[in-house]
Amino acid sequence: MLAMVLPAPGAALVAERRDDPAPGPGEVRLRVCACGVCRTDLHVVDGDLPVRRARVTPGHEVVGVVEALGPGVTGVAVGDRLGAAWLAFACGRCAYCLAGAENLCDAPEFNGWTRDGGYADRMLARADFCFPIPEAYSNVEAAPLLCAGLIGFRSWRKACEGRPVRRLGLYGFGAAAHLLAQLAIVEGQAVYAFTRPGDDAAQGLARRLGCVWAGGSDERPPDPLDAAILFAPVGDLVPTALTAVCKGGIVVCGGIHMSDIPQFPYERLWEERRLVSVANLTRQDGRDYLPWAVRAGVRAEVTTYPLSEANRALDDLRSGAFTGAAVLVPWIRRGTA
Length: 337
Hints:
Layout: E1 2-5, E2 14-17, E3 27-37, H1 39-46, E4 62-69, E5 81-84, E6 87-89, H2 95-98, E7 109-110, E8 122-126, E9 130-132, H3 139-142, H4 148-159, E10 167-171, H5 175-186, E11 190-195, H6 200-209, E12 213-216, E13 225-230, H7 237-244, E14 245-253, E15 274-277, H8 283-296, E16 302-306, H9 310-319, E17 325-329, E18 335-336
């Protein structure tokens, strides 16, 4: 097999040939068909997240075909098309798991961080933590749904807890936001898109998808927001978003890593505004989201890269060189799908 390996935090990925891995108990081996390039991969590669596995292969938005079964696997057959997401395993025994919050498990594993992920042409995954991929999506279309889509969905449901949301702000209009915007609009919400100042391409995409307003993150929206979700890992945006939401509004931080939140006046939080974070996801999120995305007609705008150009894809994500999502596919030419 061919895998893109991280030799050390901050280093470029290197291609490495390995023997095809044999699936262990409860595992399947996937022939990787597509793997999304997520901002969390950047946090792993850049060292923002601590090293949990030496020479790890990143990637956790994986669509693959089952080509081997480990002992004890049931309900899955060779040839099935499955998706492997960020949460690779939860213990099922800790207080969080027993309460239905496996995203907060005390002993979790994560694809592309504590386990080798999908920047490869073969990958092992726990069968019981994989999702069947709806037939409505191609491999490339489905890959971004497995983290950008899922974490956006979980963040959105958190934002909608407790009170109706008519006006929703999305800060950082990348992979997660452009997927969530489509679902939220179908659900009757007015979506306000905040991009890097001067990012005309992302603002244009937001308008094409039906957002009622698009502008820079340094701008005030024309209307007060009921809720805002931050996908940009920029702590400075927290007080900005709190200022943009109305009394009783909520700001949800959707990323696993964010720069420090600066000190801000208490009045920005006062009047029962709330600031919460979203951590990881649960398998139930996937079971709920994928059919919902099909019904809502959610489609990813995708730029594809060959697996061998994973470093270029990461650099382009870092610099904002594309709109929507990026996906690695073995043995293709770079382009847009």
